[in-house]
Write a structure and sequence with these properties.
- The chain has about 525 residues and is mostly beta strands.
- It folds into four domains: about 130 residues, no CATH class; about 150 residues, no CATH class; about 45 residues, no CATH class; about 90 residues, no CATH class.
- Helix content is about 5%, strand content about 35%.
- It is built from four helices and 41 strands.
- Strands 36, 37, 40 and 41 form a four-stranded antiparallel beta sheet that branches. Strands 17-19-18 form a three-stranded antiparallel beta sheet, with no helix packed on it.
- A hairpin with a 4-residue loop joins β34 and β35.
Length: about 525
């Protein structure tokens, strides 16, 4: 049997059915049309397979010798002689998709795993249990009442004055340090109850006194006498004391011996410099709080806390605007009715609510922010709660329902009857058909569509100038067509001379007929043959 008529007929089928498929939206489940993709048609056991040899294209895995040969695939490069995806990208249908990052969806069973150092936990990229995300890294997540010692990446309990300690960071009282294994007030301060009271010291010289007390000053009204200036122990302090320019000392405490601004331990101290004429002096002076615990609250030092991380006071949660330290969980949380995004808490908006961006409408699926209101994206409608009472669920949107007809797709918004593809409950004259899958929710939708009649099957063949092959061979109104799988239609084999040949034994349709796409089913066609002259 000659291949020429078959090749021409298959080409006509491809052109006609691709036209029908283009009427569908890209977000509509078109499983019945998927076999018509050019890549499948030219490679799946078809006589057209040899065309792919003449029109070579770059794919993942194609041989290469330099990176420029892989430019046709974004985010790919030539690795070990093959075009492969770059680091932090993985291959999906001959494209390179970026590997998921923090709080993005992932799948451990596939190449869609997480970027280092995150792990795929319950389908979301996150830090391992007991760790929290901080500046793209996973740090030990310390509970309330403990502090992270970065050089060990371990949590240690915070300590009050007089309690045992191992690191300065454990001592939470202002102007305290770990000395001889205990939290003590630093030199230059005295202990008073649970506080370290600073002894006012001028950097240079002795502190001027008035009636036995240092001269107090502030930034607005209380000024120092001539020859002195107002010194603030910490930059954030509102009041200071007057000092002469004679002897150089740390504002609070004593400077570290043999230390200057080039080798000062920045975690617990800071550089203090002073210039007299052309001579500059530098000292390494103690901080009231370690750099890892810069938040000052009621005479204690605290570390900043990320979203859902342990906290003790509200001030620790200020890195996320609008968040607070929840009393019950002692973690930084967003208020009820809002969600965490970036560095702030944003209000959750339902369909019809006000919004600033489409991310505000993330409570539902297939929604967007249009003119400040959460709405369904173009071509979608609010999902009915039940298809009987027409009440609406104000979270999700679904694509407009449609049924296939011989002339194209027909929107069924006004005649929408839901059904279960596994247990159809459609009325007489209708059949249950899956028409759309919501990928974001992994949910499929089926509706009752009109059952095609024998005349509509005939029209499919007639469109190509052919006749339908009947299952019982009778030209009766109750006859049914012969159905056939779409692909593979042929099996290509090598003959004794190494040339391609068609094995017709695997053809489903009778001799002199061919399988033509059936729009009323999925991955199925009907058998048609040429009209007899």
């Amino acid at each position: 049997m000659s291949l020429r008529p078959i090749l021409i007929l298959l080409a006509l089928s491809l052109a006609a059915t691709v036209t029908l498929a283009t009427e569908m939206r890209s977000d509509v489940d078109s499983s019945a049309f998927k076999w018509f993709s050019a890549a499948n048609f030219f490679t799946r056991g078809s006589p057209f397979r040899y065309f792919s040899r003449k029109f070579a294209r770059i794919e993942i895995g194609t041989a290469c010798s330099e990176d420029e040969e892989c430019l046709a695939i974004l985010n790919s490069t030539c690795i070990e002689g093959q075009c492969r995806c770059e680091v932090d990208f993985y291959a999906v249908k001959n494209t390179c998709v970026q590997t998921p990052g923090f709080k993005e969806a992932c799948a451990d069973s596939t190449s869609k795993t997480c970027r280092f150092p995150f792990q795929c936990i319950h389908g979301i990229c996150d830090c391992p249990l007991g760790f929290k995300e901080q500046d793209g890294k996973c740090q030990k997540d310390c509970k309330a009442g403990s502090v992270l010692i970065e050089k060990e990446n371990q949590c240690y309990a915070v300590k009050e004055l007089g309690l045992e300690c191992a690191y300065n960071e454990q001592c939470s009282t202002r102007y305290s340090e770990c000395a001889d294994g205990q939290c003590r007030c630093i030199p230059g301060t005295v202990r008073k109850g649970k506080q370290c009271i600073s002894l006012n010291q001028c950097p240079l010289g002795e502190t001027p006194l008035e009636n036995g007390s240092p001269l107090v000053c502030d930034r607005d009204t209380l000024k120092c006498p001539n020859g002195t200036y107002c010194l603030y122990a910490q930059f954030s302090d509102k009041r200071g004391f007057c000092c002469p320019e004679i002897k150089m000392n740390c504002p609070v405490g004593t400077p570290l011996n043999d230390k200057d601004c080039s080798n000062c331990p920045w975690e617990t101290h800071h550089c203090f410099s002073y210039t007299i004429s052309s001579v500059q002096q530098q000292m390494c002076c103690p901080n009231d709080c370690p750099r890892s615990q810069p938040i000052r609250h009621e005479n204690h030092c605290y570390a900043p806390a990320a979203h859902e991380s342990a906290c003790s006071v509200h001030a620790q949660c200020t890195s996320i605007a609008g968040s607070f330290c929840a009393d019950d969980t002692k973690t930084c949380e967003c208020p009820v009715g809002s969600f965490h995004e970036g560095a702030k808490c944003k209000r959750i908006s339902k369909l019809g609510d006000e919004c600033e961006s489409s991310k505000d409408c993330a409570l539902g699926s297939n929604t967007e922010c249009v003119s400040g209101i959460c709405q369904c994206i173009h071509g979608f409608i609010p999902e009915p709660m039940t298809f009987q009472d027409n009440q609406l669920v104000q979270e999700h949107c679904i694509a407009k329902p449609f049924c296939p007809t011989i002339s194209g797709l027909k929107i069924m918004t006004d005649d929408y009857i839901e059904c279960d593809s596994h247990n159809s409950q459609c009325p007489d004259g209708k059949f249950c058909r899956k028409w759309w899958t919501d990928g974001l929710r992994s949910k499929s939708y089926s509706l009752c569509c009109p059952t095609p009649k024998i005349q509509q099957y005939r029209a499919i063949c007639d469109h190509f100038g052919m006749e339908m092959v009947l299952a019982n061979g009778l030209e009766a109104g109750g006859s049914i067509p012969i159905r056939c799988p779409l692909a593979p239609v042929f099996q290509i084999q090598k003959d004794a001379y190494g040339a391609d040949s068609v094995d017709e034994s695997v053809m489903v349709c009778p001799s002199q007929s061919i399988c033509i796409f059936n729009p009323f089913s999925s991955n199925e066609g009907i058998c048609c043959h040429y009209r007899h002259n």
